[in-house]
Amino acid sequence: MDMSQYLGVFLDEAREHLQNLNDKLMTLEQNAEDPELINSIFRSAHTLKGSSGQMGFQNMMELTHIMENVFDALRHQSIKVSSEMIDVLFEGLDHLEAMADTIEQNGSDVREVSGTIKKLQTLTTDGTPDNDAPSSDQKVTVSTVSEPVNTKAMELTDYEKEFISQAQSQKLHVFETVVNLNKDCVLKAARALMISNALEESGTIIGTRPSTEEIEKEAFDQQLVFLIATESENQEIQNKINQISEIENVTVSPINNLEENSPVVQRQQAQDIGPKKQAQKENEPSKPAAAHPAVTVAKTIRVNLDRIDQLLNLFEELIIDRGRLEKIASDIDNTDLKDTVGTIKRISNQLQETILNLRMEPIEQVFNRFPRMVRNLSKELNKKVNFVINGAETELDRTVIEELGDPLMHMIRNSMDHGIETPEVRKAKGKDPEGTLSLSAYYSGNHVIVEIVDDGAGINKEKVLAKAIEKNVVTKEAAQKLTDKDIYHLLFASGFSTADKISDISGRGVGLDVVESKIHSLSGSVEVDSERDKGSKFTVRLPLTLSIINALLVQCSKEIYAIPINSIAETALRRHIEVMSIHNRNVMQYHGQVVPIINLSDYLSITSAEKNNTNEVDQGSSVVMVNHGDKIVALVADKLLGYQDIVVKPLGNYLKNVSGFSGATILGDGKVALIIDCQAIITTQKKLFLKEQA
Amino acid sequence: MMTNQKETNMKVILFEINSESYGVPVEQVLSIEKVDDITRLPNAASFVKGVMNLRGLIVPIIDVRNRFQMGESVVTKESRIIVVDVEDMKVGLLVDSSKEVLDIESAKIEKAPEIIGGPSANYLNGVAQIGDNELLLLLNLDRVLNQDDVADLLKIEG
Questions:
Q1: Looking at the domain B2-151, which fold is it?
Q2: Triad A398, A318, A548: Cα angle to 5°
Q3: Cβ-Cβ contacts under 8 Å, A603 against chain B
Q4: Which residue on chain A is closest to B85 by alpha carbon?
């Protein structure tokens, strides 16, 4: 049989099992005595061994087999969990993961693993049951499961009864087909699909036990029951199924006495089924899809990401045209047109949500690689750390997820290295020798917040400042004006590292500045808060999605710009605010804070010839308060044009050096409007401020 | 014979800047467009005229004349934008006019004589004679679009 069609399924499954092993091994170290845990580990390894063997990946199978021996020995408590053992097992897992990767790339699982195999073998050499023991042991448990074949005890639903009587009135045979899969059958779902396909060839499947959904999820042992209506005889069906490999046995038995249950139904049906199959065919589509396992298997489908991206691209085009349409409708002022445009807008909003949802994935995908990392680091650094993950189910756009791994890794490493102290130091400080590092994600409005909190030493402000001055990141004079948060934020400045000794974990001075630029490129922001000897908190704010955002369109002279709503704190009329002046700079009071006023016309270097006459316009113009973190500036624009969903388009490679804009969008009239990067405004403003102070 | 033919001939899109004829190989050209609304891009180099919506794609527009430091182009009815694709960068070149596609024999292409000098000399791949008294300047787009010198400029400004 050609196996290549199962390769994708195999790899997905293998990765799931590997992830499961990964997670469970982490827990095993703490709960060595939990039999359920060891069993789960054993099962994953066992399945993986079987499926890799079946797919012909010998190396993978052998390695898994040897690991399975270790798990089996643990299961029988002939050996005890030790930290060294977990290390070796992780080493094995790493090899398996690497194999899965190379299988995906070039179909080969060849890899040098003899060292690891030797180490694994020494784990089990003392007093382990020999290799055959597990399988014989398994045989016992399995055969008890497959024994009770309760052929006639199947309870039928009303729908099935109706269908059966309908079929019988058409002189079709109805069979209950009980299939027992081979006990070490792997890819049971695929096998079940093959069986149901074979049955579909000869008739119609009325129902299955377990349900198709459970079959898809492989939530069954060895037994599958199919109810089938067919013209064929039971022997034919039996033969057909027996041709499929890995099947223990098949029994096909007719069901014929439903009469006492549903004579009425039968009579009713007999009337409209009279003209034979035709009517049945017509009835079928209106039935719930459950009658067709072959169809329901497609309830979840794997879709190439390119197609979803393509869908999103098309949708973006639609949004642009929708904007155009809205503009036309407001110009023409026709009620029908307006209503229709309103409907289109509503539907496309729903469409947008649906499409964007397709791209959402749980942040777990990034998070679940960290427990291992933290464990390794804590060994390397001789620190005791309790690593806690919260909100792993929080969903984010997959583009963001893909890019998030590295920055988070840097920050966790940083917390492990610089934050959490060694147990001795912690004891001396009167803290629990075991430190806590938590990684959490949660929603906050249109954002997802990711927090990394440690209860370690906190950030030494003086040290950071001294270092920053030494490295010319800030001047001495400017340093005095900085708030605590500003100082903490200096950690993200490039070329900055406070670690006294350079370790290979962090402190190469390249970590955190990369973190900030990466997060910035995702339109996110990062903040640090810290308290001496209590710990520090890194907060990353990320937008839920990147491609379609709500923005305020503003006009300056004749040009139109978009300001993302995420950055906007408030808008006000220019004449309602009181402008003050400090050092020839316009500022205003905002919630007790003095914030600088920036004239967008100046910032965007709109030449004075294009500028309208200043004073008069000032009165009619508007102020947009934008914030980034806790920094706020006020932007003055000539006119606010209103909020609109816009599609963010990149400016492209050629303009990658141009700062101040996070992209562009196409307006209803086909013109391009630039999207103002508020973070950049605030950063330049801050730099300007520091420069002046200096 | 056929392959020979292909090797020795080169299709070139012909356009004019400042009454001089320039050419770029057709393979590098995506399309030729009329000048639509160009949105000014503050903070960009002076020869970046702005960005334009090209059927849903945002394309930067470069004023080639300005890039060659020969002053700023004036957009007229004849003006065209030649959209080129070089090393994954899609860029529109604003030129005074563009009329034809030409076949040029490779043999007729000569190295740009240093004597030409002038601002555009750095950006040429070669020169070919077309017609009786006319020279075609073949642009080296990699160099036209290279921004290393520009980045330096910006740094000084910024």
A1: OB fold (Dihydrolipoamide Acetyltransferase, E2P) (2.40.50)
A2: 35
A3: 42
A4: A654
